[in-house]
């Protein structure tokens, strides 16, 4: 099942693609650093970045945007 188009409005192609892949694989949760870490709080960012090994070690799947020049590439 594809996410409703209104959910994807305003998101980059990479994030929209990640949502679609996550749902297609049957998962309900997606961690996106940009949205899951408070980018306006330097202390929070530092704390979360220092724990990325724990965050990613608990994941079922890790999606990496390996092509394109930025997040709009999809």
From TrEMBL:
<protein>
    <submittedName>
        <fullName>Heterokaryon incompatibility</fullName>
    </submittedName>
</protein>
<dbReference type="Pfam" id="PF06985">
    <property type="entry name" value="HET"/>
</dbReference>
<dbReference type="InterPro" id="IPR010730">
    <property type="entry name" value="HET"/>
</dbReference>
<feature type="domain" description="Heterokaryon incompatibility">
    <location>
        <begin position="11"/>
        <end position="73"/>
    </location>
</feature>
């Amino acid at each position: 099942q594809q996410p409703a188009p209104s959910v994807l409005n305003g998101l980059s192609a990479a994030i929209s693609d990640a949502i679609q892949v996550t749902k297609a694989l049957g998962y309900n949760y997606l961690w996106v650093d940009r949205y899951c870490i408070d980018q306006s709080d330097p202390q929070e960012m530092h704390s979360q970045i220092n724990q990325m090994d724990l965050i990613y070690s608990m994941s079922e799947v890790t999606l990496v945007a390996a092509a394109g020049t930025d997040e709009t590439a999809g």
